[in-house]
Write a structure and sequence with these properties.
This protein is mostly helical and 472 residues long. The protein is built from 19 helices and 6 strands. A two-stranded antiparallel sheet has the order 1-4. Helix 14 runs antiparallel to helix 15. The chain is elongated. The N and C termini lie far apart (93 Å).
Amino acid sequence: MREDQRQDPAARGQQDPGATEAGTSTKSQATLLTRRSTKNPAFFRTVARLGVQAAEALDHAHQMGVVHRDIKPANLLVDARSHVWITDFGLAIYQSDGGLTLTGDLLGTLRYMSPEQALARRFMIDHRTDIYSLGVTLYELVTLEPPYNGKDRQELLRQIAFEEPKPPRALNPSVPVELETVLLKAMNKDLDSRYSTAQELADDLRRFLENKPILARRPTVMERFTKWCRRHKAMVLMAIAFVMLALGGLLACTVMLMAKEKATQKALEQTKIQEAEAQRMRQIAQDNYERAISGVSQLLIRLESKNWDQIEHIRDLRRALSEQSIKFLTSNFVNEQSQDPGDQEGSARTHLVLATIYRLRGELPKVREAYFKAIRLYEKLAERFPENPDFACRIATCHNFLALATHDLGDSKQAAAEFSRAVEGYRKVLSCCDHGLALNDLAWLRATCPLPEFRDPQEAVTLAEKAVKVIK
């Protein structure tokens, strides 16, 4: 529309309604096409190429000592050869020898102002304000949305100074992560966290175009929190004061509870002393049990040695001692009715010793009975404590010993069944963990089993080597 038409009300009234509708439709179609183009990777590479040119042009101006202070889309012109030109240096300033300029005025277009410009206080403004404004321009180009959309001047200035912009990918998920990182670094509210020169921004954009790793890194959670605290000092101070008051109240409550806590602590210490004493007595009892079991077993096994066969009445002596041992162990260490896990385990181990004694006496049926009793007790323990593989391993060992006793009775079929249960039990334990005792016992079974179908020398060697490593 010509200038005289904009100024002439009559000209405005003579516009063709059909032309107006056509213009509106064309505008809507153009907007749709623009939004579609922002999903195309080629679009983002074009944005990066334009950004490289603009950043290098700004860097040249900065090296000449010129700060533009009004970088925005209207001041970046692209010619037919896709060359970017920076225009309108009306607000530009020439930096002093120190490279910095003091300002207390609001200069530049609000939406593209840097935080230091938006604060409008006696703040040091340098070339990095142009880097921020260029970052905002590129941000708006890839998202088609401004980073801040305050409804009025004051709200917009507050957002620029204190609020973080939405990540570009939150508005347009098609934006590459590397490009988003570059833009957010250029728009960092902290001067020292931005690119130190426009050339650094151009170099990172060029790395993006060349598919090389960019130097910019996304801020960590701690860095974002620290920056937030710097921008909201009043709120942080109030929070600190509140925390101090809360700590004071907590300290007062703590002092009031300390007297009661001392009494409670004293009672706990007394309880710990009593528990330690009880544990010591249990350990003494366990040690005595181990010594008694070991002493009885070793004595009877040594008496079975052929070296003693020349002694007169040795058989009677062996039998008398074994009978006494059976009575002693049964009356003192077997308590199958108890539900205490310690008593149950002690009874099971005692039955294993009794089975050994019965085997020395040649009473093989009683050997089987003792093993069966031990198996029942270990099964109860395994059911109560399924996380403990020791009980399952001992069940397999009992089946192994029972198989050997059954074989001695001449019942090969029943012995094979017990050997099968033993092998199955060991493998079940080993499927859960590398259990040293299970590896060792299964290796011996595979190496020395009297039934040939259960012997496997190669597996025995493998299991034995693994057992040595596990036990070490």
